């Protein structure tokens, strides 16, 4: 089997959770199934003649996803879609900064996304047919077209699928298979002998991840906070706001680190905090939880589906809520039950198997359709 992965053009220059998801899925599928070869290509006009199927990632950038799907359909290829979906209305109106926040409070969700599309088309260099179509048709309509054309959806959780169905149903019948977000059990594990004396937050520095409110919460706490990440060039104002919000020496900002160094950081942390405006559920929260940290996570997204009663939850827009969750997590013993459950249910090995189940389902369906024809 030969599979082509297609996703946003800046997947490696603006790294995020989807970057890890793509690379780890490829790594573990190819390691576990030697007969499967996977390539990664962001060309919307790629020649698909040598591929058995296409696996596309990310409904949040429909201007690219629709082009990948249409190319697959034009070349008679089955297409799986890792949805990576949420609605960010609350974040755009409460968690954003400056003029963007003010404008977003005055217009509809589709209006917000159309404005972003205009910015991308005329200023950010995304001057192509997909962005033009987003501006003309609207964000939700373009996403609906994607759902209508995808042969199989691969959401990260039932909660993600429920959100999709609540927005686009009952007009659509959607085939899906849940593929969990996951950890690399060979890298991330608990060191019971390590000295843990910090609170850690790992992630890209941007308003959605909400590090600014986390810093504000820490100005009234006695613990040491380390924030590890990097700000994209478009988020330098946010990074500066983070730096300006630091009022004492108990908050430190360090650069993004690779997985080997990240494990060392987790081993120093008593608590890991990710107070995002939404997450599904946050790969770093999974990694931290199996590395010996109690975790504080947002109430938004699929976090409860993954962590149940074994995490400490906070409201992203409420400083006191973030503070209380951190204090509770810091003063509690390490939750080994969560570590056990993640190692049992949420590993890349399992994600690889579920993804390949989806591929086989698609190819068997294709054979049935050819036979019927």
What does this structure look like?
The chain has 373 residues and is an alpha/beta fold. It contains 16 helices and eleven strands. The protein has helices spanning 17-32, 62-74, 89-95, 98-104, 109-122, 129-137, 139-149, 158-168, 211-218, 236-245, 259-268, 283-290, 303-307, 319-330, 336-345, 348-372; strands at 2-6, 37-40, 53-57, 78-82, 152-153, 198-202, 224-229, 251-255, 269-274, 294-298, 312-314. The protein is globular and about 60 Å long. It starts with a strand and ends with a helix.
Structure summary:
The chain folds into two domains: 2-182 and 347-372, Glycogen Phosphorylase B (Rossmann fold, 3-Layer(aba) Sandwich), CATH 3.40.50.2000; 198-345, 3-Layer(aba) Sandwich (Rossmann fold). It has 16 helices and eleven strands.
Note the main attributes of this structure:
16 helices; Rossmann fold; 11 strands; globular; 5-stranded parallel sheet; 6-stranded parallel sheet; 2 domains
How is the secondary structure organized here?
Blueprint: E1 2-6, H1 17-32, E2 37-40, E3 53-57, H2 62-74, E4 78-82, H3 89-95, H4 98-104, H5 109-122, H6 129-137, H7 139-149, E5 152-153, H8 158-168, E6 198-202, H9 211-218, E7 224-229, H10 236-245, E8 251-255, H11 259-268, E9 269-274, H12 283-290, E10 294-298, H13 303-307, E11 312-314, H14 319-330, H15 336-345, H16 348-372
Parallel strand pairs: 1-2, 1-3, 3-4, 4-5, 6-7, 6-9, 7-8, 9-10, 10-11
Helix pairs in contact: 1-16, 2-6, 2-7, 3-4, 5-6, 6-7, 9-10, 9-14
EC number: 2.4.-.-
Enzyme class: transferase
GO molecular function: glycosyltransferase activity
């Amino acid at each position: 089997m030969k599979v082509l992965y297609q996703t946003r053009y800046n997947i490696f220059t603006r790294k995020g959770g989807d970057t890890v998801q793509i690379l780890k899925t490829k790594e573990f599928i190819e390691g576990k199934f030697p007969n499967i070869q996977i390539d990664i290509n962001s060309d919307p006009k790629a020649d698909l003649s040598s591929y058995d199927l296409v696996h596309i990632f990310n409904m949040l950038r429909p201007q690219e996803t629709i082009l990948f799907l249409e190319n697959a359909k034009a070349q008679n290829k089955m297409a799986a879609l890792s949805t990576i979906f949420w609605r960010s209305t609350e974040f755009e109106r409460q968690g954003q900064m400056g003029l963007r926040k003010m404008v977003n409070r005055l217009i509809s969700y589709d209006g917000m996304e159309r404005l972003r599309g205009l910015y991308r088309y005329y200023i950010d260099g995304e001057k192509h047919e997909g962005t033009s179509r987003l501006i003309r048709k609207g964000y939700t309509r373009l996403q609906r077209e994607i759902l209508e054309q995808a042969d199989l959806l691969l959401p990260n959780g039932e909660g993600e699928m429920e959100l999709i169905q609540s927005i686009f149903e009952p007009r659509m019948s959607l085939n899906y298979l849940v593929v969990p977000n996951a950890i690399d059990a060979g890298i991330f594990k608990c060191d019971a002998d390590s000295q843990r004396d910090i609170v850690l937050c790992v992630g890209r520095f941007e308003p959605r991840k909400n590090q600014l409110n986390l810093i504000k919460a820490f100005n009234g706490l006695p613990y040491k906070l380390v924030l590890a990440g990097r700000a994209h060039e478009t988020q330098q104002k946010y990074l500066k706001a983070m730096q300006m919000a630091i009022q004492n020496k108990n908050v430190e900002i360090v650069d993004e680190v690779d997985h080997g160094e990240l494990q060392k950081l987790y081993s120093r942390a008593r608590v890991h905090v990710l107070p995002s405006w939404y997450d599904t559920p946050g790969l770093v929260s999974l990694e931290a939880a199996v590395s010996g940290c109690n975790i504080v996570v947002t109430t938004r997204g699929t976090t409860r589906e993954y962590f149940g009663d074994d995490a400490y939850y906070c409201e992203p827009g409420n400083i006191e809520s973030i503070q209380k969750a951190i204090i509770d997590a810091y003063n509690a013993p390490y939750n080994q039950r969560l570590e056990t459950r993640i190692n049992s249910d949420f590993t890349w090995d399992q994600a690889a198997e579920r993804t390949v189940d989806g591929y086989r389902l698609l190819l068997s369906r294709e054979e049935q359709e050819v036979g019927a024809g």
